[in-house]
Amino acid sequence: MKRLLVIGIGAGDPDQLTFQGAKAIGAADAFLLVGKGEAKDDLTGLRRELIAAHGREPYRVVEVRDPERDRTASAYTAAVEDWRSRRAEIYESFVRDELAEGETGALLVWGDPGVYDSTLAALDEIGVEFDFEVIPGISSISALTARHRVGLTRVGRPVHITTGRRLAAEGATADDVLVMLDAACAFGEVGDGFHIYWGAYLGTPDEILIEGPVAEVAERIRATRAEARARKGWIMDTYLLRRSPS
């Protein structure tokens, strides 16, 4: 049977690739790289470097362009599901047309495939027969807390993982809130009493870290984020909001 490896490669530092991930790259006959255009070519570049370092010759690399997502749609969930279905078509084509029976293909996924990623959900939509294995990676959450030297959890307290969109709509629903991709900088509206640990481009040479009371660093984060995005053409960031003890 055709086999697919979904390999978590970490948040951006090549050294974050696990031994298991390196072995999985070495076991693949073909790799699918889904790129996001020239502005984000450095994301694809890291994947190429990892394949060159750990791949077992001879291997094949198939590169395709990621489908565009409608970011102006009012129906956010429907827009994401449509984009994910078009991603699934790319995966299905790769398995059907690029892998022979008995061969192994690989997808190199940022961070951990099981944390804030659509790859596994898209694979559920594939209509061809294949088997797959998931190799966990270091998520941006782990990279963020490690770089700020803080724990994700506190004794007896829950952690809420959410998005910037949901934070803007619901506010902080726990004393510790981990937020993924907040284009609107909703952290500025959580009110007094929160500390923020913010990071962008984690694990890369462009990494940016800012932490402090939200009331004191919110404007600095906004300005830094806007400048970085304008300079690079894209930004990937995450942050931990932590309510300070009374």
Automatic annotation (TrEMBL):
Entry's Gene Ontology BP terms: cobalamin biosynthetic process; methylation
Domain Tetrapyrrole methylase intervals: 4-217
GO MF annotation: an example: precorrin-6A synthase (deacetylating) activity
EC number: 2.1.1.152
The organism's place on the tree of life at top rank: Bacteria
Pfam family, one: TP_methylase
Class of this enzyme: transferase
Pathway field: Cofactor biosynthesis; adenosylcobalamin biosynthesis
Keyword ATP-binding in record: no
Alphabetical UniProt keywords: Cobalamin biosynthesis, Methyltransferase, S-adenosyl-L-methionine, Transferase
Stored InterPro entries: 4pyrrol_Mease, 4pyrrol_Methylase_sf, 4pyrrole_Mease_sub1, 4pyrrole_Mease_sub2, CobF
Name of this protein: Precorrin-6A synthase (Deacetylating)
